[in-house]
Amino acid sequence: MRLFIALTFSPELVEKLSAAQDELRQCRGDVKWVERENLHLTLKFLGEVTKERVREIIDTLSQGVRGIGKLHLGVKGAGVFPNWARPRIIWVGLTPNPLLGELHRSLEQELVALGFPAEKSFSPHITLGRIRTLNNWSVLKQKLQGWQERIWGEEEINKVVLMQSHLTPRGPLYRIVETFPLTQTHTIF
User: Which residues lie below 8 Å from residue 133, measured CB to CB, with a gap of 6+?
Assistant: First the structure.
C-alpha cells in the first residue's frame, strides 16, 4: 500500500483554497488541480509499504508525535516548484513555525531509523495543482505572483494522519489509516 503522513485542514480553509483554485482555473492554464477533498500538507511520503510494516509505522509515529502540542499555522502566499522558469507544482505556503519543524524532524528521525530514506529538505506547502504544459502560463504566473503575500487564514492543527493513497485513472483516492493526536499542552505561534 502507498502511504504518506499529512496534516489536514478545516472545511473553512479548504473552501478558501478551493475558491483560489477556481480563480486560477479562469487563467485557462493546463493544470491538473488537486481535488478539494485531497488538499493537505505532506509531512513525509513513505511510498509503497507492505501491510506487515503498517503496525511498525503506526507505533513509530505514535512515538514521533509524543511531546508535540497543537500547531497554529498561518497559511500565506503562493508560488511554484521548482521555480518560475520551470514551474511544475502550484502551491500555497505557510508562515514559518518552529513547532512544525520540530514535528517534521521528530517524524523524520523515527522513520529513518525504520529504513525510510531521509528527505533532502522540508518545504511546508499545500499543493493546489500540477502544471502539465506551459499553455497560458504567463496569465497564471501573473495571478500567482500577485498572491505571494496573500493571507489565506490560520489553522489550529490537533492531529497528524497516516494516509493511504490509491491511484486511479481519475486521480488519487485518500483514506485515513490512523490518526495521531497532538496532545502536549504547550503551543507555539
Answer: 30
Q: What span, in angstroms and rounded, lies between the C-alpha atoms of 132 and 34?
A: 13
> Residues for the chain: how many in total?
189
Place of cell 500538507: 41
Angle among Cα 171, 91, 33 to the nearest 5 degrees reads: 30
Residue 77 has a CB neighbour count (10 Å cut-off) of: 18
Residue 187 confidence (pLDDT) above 90: no
Confidence grade of residue 167 (pLDDT, cut at 50, 70, 90): confident
The pTM of this model reads 0.91
How far is residue 118 from each of residues 12, 25, 131, measured CA to CA in Å?
Answer: 33, 35, 26
| Dihedral-angle region of residue 91 (phi above 0 means left; psi in -120 to 50 means alpha; beta otherwise) | beta
pLDDT of residue 109: 92
Taking the CB of residue 114, how many other CB atoms lie within 10 A of it? 13
Which 8-state DSSP code applies to residue 68?
A: -
Q: Which of 55, 63, 48 is nearest to 3 (CA)?
A: 48
Indicate which residues carry an active-site annotation. 40, 125
Q: Which residue has the cell 500565506?
A: 76
Q: What is the pLDDT of residues 97-133, one digit of tens each?
A: 999 999 999 999 999 999 999 988 899 999 999 999 9
